[in-house]
Amino acid sequence: MMSELLSLPGLAGKTVVVTGASGGQGLAETLVLLNSGATVIATDLQSEATAEMLAAAEGLAGTLHYKKLDVASEADWAAVAEFAASLATACRVWLTTPAFHFAVDSAT
């Protein structure tokens, strides 16, 4: 994990949704946003936030919420949007981090 996180101005008190937040670029974005004071709705395929995410987010200035989201599921998107609308601050940003799932054919 990063030894020192960035802090971006103007994000304190803003709500941001991040897809693909359980690892890689999505987790890095989530942590920078939290460090900047944002409320982050972190989403990914897992039912619960990973231990790595929770440990890395501990003590950062923002607020972390986690929701399961399969980006191919209209129902999951609706549930995340409904949750975002229920928060005290309006959702200002949606960050969609691409995930690549592929199989390697060992015969080639």
Structure description:
The structure is a single chain. The chain is 30% helix and 19% strand. The chain has helices spanning 24-35, 51-57, 74-86; strands at residues 15-18, 39-44, 63-68, 91-95. The protein starts with 14 loop residues before the first strand and ends in a 13-residue tail after the last strand. The mean pLDDT is 86.
Concise overview:
By secondary structure, this protein is an alpha/beta fold.
How is the topology of this model organized?
Layout: E1 15-18, H1 24-35, E2 39-44, H2 51-57, E3 63-68, H3 74-86, E4 91-95
Parallel strand pairs: 1-2, 1-4, 2-3
Structural class: alpha/beta
Which segments are poorly predicted (pLDDT under 50) over 5 or more consecutive residues?
none
Question: The CATH topology is what?
Answer: Rossmann fold
CATH architecture: 3-Layer(aba) Sandwich
Question: Number of DSSP helices?
Answer: 3
Q: Kindly state the number of beta strands.
A: 4
> How do the strands line up in the largest sheet?
3-2-1-4
CATH superfamily name?
A: NAD(P)-binding Rossmann-like Domain
The main pleated sheet reads as:
4 strands, parallel
SSE succession? EHEHEHE
Number of domains: 1
Question: Which CATH class is shown?
Answer: Alpha Beta
